Amino acid sequence: MSFKPKPLLGRRINPYHPLAQGLVGCWLLNEGGGDKIFDLSGYGNVGTFVNNPTWVPDGLEVTEDGDEHVTLGRSSILQPSEITLVVGAIKTADIAANNTGLLRTPQETQNTGGILAIHSDEKARFFIMNLADNQWAICESDNIVPLGSEHQYIGTCDGSDVFLHIDGVLQADTESVSAIKWGTVNQDAAVGRYNVQTPDAIITYAFYYNRALTPRQITSLHAEPYAMFEPVFDPVLFGYVVVDGVAPTKSWQVRHRILLMLGYEDL
Description:
This protein is mainly beta. It has 2 helices and 17 strands. It is globular, with a radius of gyration of 18 Å.
């Protein structure tokens, strides 16, 4: 959960930030009205409302009974060989259905790609369809998802290993695949849905990467989900930020920020 407010509507991503690399879908859910959500990644994956999800101060509320969700299209950019799905969400009621979707990739009749979901046992799950045996590789959270508080869910697959992180913490249940199966997709990616299963939840943001984030990047994304919106030049670069009463030397700050902007220093 971020200690900083969401960037204002219209704020641009810093394309040089390490957490902007491979970001092909970025929905902040800060529009506050209307029936679309806009993709700030630059790839144009605009979301369209189905069954009227509700705007709330924290983002977008969906309910299981109403099957409210947002379709995101099925662009080929959303069908990568590596993937990371990221969702901030607040569960608002106990889950009755199996595998209610927080964020899903494009699908071929629920049989391809990946899904972040909350199951009827109240645990989070990350699914990847294994090309070798046409079966889901499923990572499940260590603990149940509590009601009423925001948590961050990150599922990642580097093409072989599959992991689930909750609030930056790697969960014990890990899996492996030969590759991610895609096939011929015939259903859109979606926020707030798997097949017909929608959770009772408020979705606060959703990110979609066409690469696997590193553990250190996942930790950083949990600490500050909106880090990729930091400006290229900020007060730190010019020596105006004081840490523990001491301002780092300007030369150190310049070097550090330039390396980050160019992506040479891993988060």
